[in-house]
Amino acid sequence: MAFQITILPSQHVFQAEADEIILDAALRQGVVLPYGCRDGACGACRGRVLSGQVDLGQAQIKALSNAERSAGFALLCCARAHSDLSIEGRELLSAQALPVKTLPARVQKLTRVAPDVMLVELKLPASERLQFFAGQYIEILLKEGRRRAFSLANAPHDDSCLQLHIRHMPGGQFTDRLFSTMQERDILRFNGPHGSFFLREDSTKPMLLVAGGTGFAPIKAIVEHAIAEQSTRPMAIYWGGRGRADLYLLPLAEQWAAAHSGIRFVPVLSEAPESDHWQGRSGFVHAAAMHDYPDLSGHQAYVCGSPAMVAAARRDFVGQCQLPETEFFADSFELANDHQSPTAG
Ligand code: FES
After folding, report:
1. Residue 36: predicted pLDDT
2. Does 195 contact ligand 1 (Cβ within 6 A)?
3. Euclidean distance between CA atoms 171 and 118, whole angstroms
4. What is the pLDDT of residue 8?
5. Which fold has domain 207-338?
6. Is the CB of 149 under 6 A from ligand 1?
7. Residue range 99-194, CATH number
8. pTM for this one?
9. Is the pLDDT of residue 313 over 90?
């Protein structure tokens, strides 16, 4: 039995089978709703059920609080329809829907840019390119159906190689291999692009970009894309880590700011050891951004890092700095089990 789902305010309509995840049904029928993890963990697919009955499924409490449940919100990557539904939700333009491909890729270059961070460049077959939006991610396909998600660090126009920034998670099936036996010319398979964390080019608002650790990867893609597009939108980039080594491409970010008057770059360390001789900003990266931008009512914010950092940024940017919630875009890195990309929105 199929139910009719109406998305508001777009009034786009699609059908969902009773046992079908609502997000899956929407994407299958060309209604592009935002999503990140598709696992009930990030909140990117949150929508408000205005009428009808839903089964909330495996929505995790960290992504959908009890108060949000009471207010009618659901995570559309987990929810199933039990009746016809009207759902208030943000919709991406269908034109933005890109084909998702499964492709082989050769490991072109491995560069250890920090003791626990590898910069990986992947080369696609000669006849293939991956079309994606700046900030999206791919999934590396492993044995037995396992996948590991990593954000693309290169801008879409610069697609001769795909660049990933991968932190070693000891005990992680993929990253243990990457940091031990993997070699240049090895072949991987991946699937992508995925995710709704990408630069919104229909806005002229100034951007606040906040990265934690290897969350710098999609921020780099967005900044390099904006530079390539000769965007005139002001960009304030905050990159946080514990120590200096966590800011593994610091000269690159400094060079963006030096070369472009519209770009401001602020590195922030939370636990710099004395040996770092750190003279810059200290503390939590999102707190440093809030200190400098106490009024975000006219901004867009792009945030990528740990789930805790993303959650704090969402709470404080919206709750204290008047950032409209619809202008907050995020990916959170779920570091357990190797996953280093989207579980949030
Ligand atoms: S919670 Fe639905 S996409 Fe992450």
Report:
1. 66
2. no
3. 16
4. 93
5. Rossmann fold (3.40.50)
6. no
7. 2.40.30.10
8. 0.74
9. yes
Distance from the alpha carbon of residue 332 to the mean position of ligand 1, in angstroms: 11
Q: What atom of ligand 1 comes closest to residue 63's alpha carbon?
A: 1
Report domain extents, the chain: 2-95, 99-194, 207-338
**Which atom number of ligand 1 is nearest to the Cα of residue 64?**
1
pLDDT digits (tens, 9 = 90+) for 217-232: 999 999 998 998 788 9
257 CA distance to ligand 1 centroid (A)?
34
Query: Is the Cβ atom of 44 under 6 angstroms away from ligand 1?
Result: yes
Tokens of 335: 């570091």
Cα angle vertex 323, ends 319, 325, to 5°?
Answer: 80
Q: Which atom of ligand 1 sits closest to the CA of residue 41? A: 1
Residue 228 neighbours by CB under 8 Å, 6+ apart: 155, 157, 158
CATH homologous superfamily of 2-95: Beta-grasp domain (3.10.20.30)
Q: Is the C-beta atom of 114 inside 6 A of ligand 1?
A: no
Does residue 36's CB lie within 6 angstroms of at least one atom of ligand 1? yes
The terminus-to-terminus CA distance of the chain in angstroms comes to 31
Count of CB atoms situated within 10 Å of the CB of 248 = 23
Q: How many residues does the chain have?
A: 345
pLDDT digits 0-9 by tens, 227-283: 987 889 999 999 999 999 999 999 999 999 999 999 999 999 999 999 999 999 999
96, pLDDT greater than 70: no
